[in-house]
Amino acid sequence: MTTHSHALIAFSLPAALLASCANAETGNNAAAEAAFATATIGEFDEPWAIRFAPGTETLFITEKAGTLKVMDTKTGTIGIVEGVPEVDYGGQGGLGDVAFLPGEASQPLDGRIIYLTWAEAGDNDTRGAAAGRGVLVCPAITDCRIKEFAVIWRQDEKVTGRGHYSHRITFDPNGRHMYIASGERQKMLPAQDLSNNLGTIVRLKLDGAPAKENPFEARGGTSAQIFSYGHRNILGMAWDASGRLWEVEHGPAGGDELNLVKRAANYGWPLVSDGDHYNGDKIPANATRPDLTQPVINWTPVIAPSDMLIYSGKMFGPWKGEALITGLSTQAIIRVSFDGETARETARYPFARRLRSLTEGPDGAVWVAEDGKSARLLKLTPQ
After folding, report:
1. For the chain, how far is it from start to end, CA to CA, in angstroms?
2. Residues 137-190: pLDDT tens digits?
3. Separation of alpha carbons 247 and 260, rounded Å
4. pTM for the full model?
5. Are 293 and 273 contacting, i.e. CB atoms less than 8 angstroms apart?
6. Domains of the chain
7. Contact at 8 Å (CB) between 327 and 303?
8. Catalytic residue from among 4, 6, 164, 177
9. With contact defined as beta carbons under 8 Å apart, do 231 and 199 qualify?
């Protein structure tokens, strides 16, 4: 099922934000009541990912230029984590995602495994996404470092340009496998070539080796990593309560997509899209190729997705099991409801600025990071 979503459902925000939202995309529906209360918790420089270490109130924030910060959200104390890899900063590149093993939620923070992704420089003005892991040494929030850090995965072809790294990380519900989104780096056709891992989602063991029984395992080499392909620029991945993996990715000029990730599926880029090339050249629509996997939702105009979670808490009870997607050009949180393997957009909550990342707190509050310089960290609670 493909749903074309154009309508915008507006909800009011606290007065401090409402005036500055006047120019955001809010549609024609008047707000009936506030969706949530918003508190500003801190300010960061180009945050890219915010994630709580499972089972804690400790929040980790990556800043694109190469700094990893950690915050005790009970006290507001912020520290800098040493031992982060050198990043290739520029364009869409820099320090990317941060992730922790869900199975370590009951262990002390000090001694946990920490995963990072980043843009890594190559030869001759090339670069590509990389992922690594190490051991977090954190006896105090102001005294944290990573030891034994090592690269465990790379985009296997470094190319020119500074776009479409994707490099989001997620772990499957049983905690045995790691999935990494690998963008097609604005090179398009590699997303259809199984000899490389650009434009794919890779499924790996926790040490970065290809997982067993991947669909193209018999081909060997890089192909053995690949779980799905034909992707453009994935910036959000999340699991639903039934163990299904969903991803949200940027289309070109139009055609942003929500996809249900399936083994060996080809999502069509750049052969098809419900958007056009930026120069106006037409691309065959998804519907012209029923042999390829169709998006569950596609958005034109685009939502410019930057991150996604599927809500599991109790604080926002009606949202449980629904997706929340942060938007860049839309300056909004987009809410999506699921019905098995179908989905539909149900609400948009406008903000004053582009939104970069979001995460669910241990008490069910939703934390959001704005995009860019002097970006606020916001905590959302029911109004």
Report:
1. 34
2. 999 999 999 999 999 999 998 999 999 999 999 999 999 999 999 999 999 999
3. 7
4. 0.92
5. no
6. 3-382 (2.120.10.30)
7. yes
8. 164
9. yes
